[in-house]
Amino acid sequence: MNPTQEHNERIAKMTFATVYPHYVTKVEKKNRTKEELHQVITWLTSFDEATIQKLIDEKVTFETFFQKATINPNAHLIIGLICGYRIEEIENELTKQVRCLDKLVDELAKGKKMEKILRS
């Protein structure tokens, strides 16, 4: 199943700042830390702590967020189902990147070991 064009556009326009608190809540509820969340975000995007905060403060869209990112060369190893979509089958690159981030946050919240999450 592939997301519709409307779905892709909605994701592109969504701001990282509105989703970020949900990521924090999700991982902290499962006894993981904000620092671990940032480690996962940094692994995928190459953003440091200050850049993550700046992008939140600027309320950038996911489109801008991922345009500024340098995606980890091992990101292609992120596969599986998230939000009803199989990541490796998503054709829209931005939607795929957002779903990869969602998958990493999900794995963190599920208690996976960091080295497995970071595909090392």
Automatic annotation (TrEMBL):
It holds the Pfam family DUF2200. InterPro entries: SP1917_dom_sf, UCP033199. This is DUF2200 domain-containing protein.
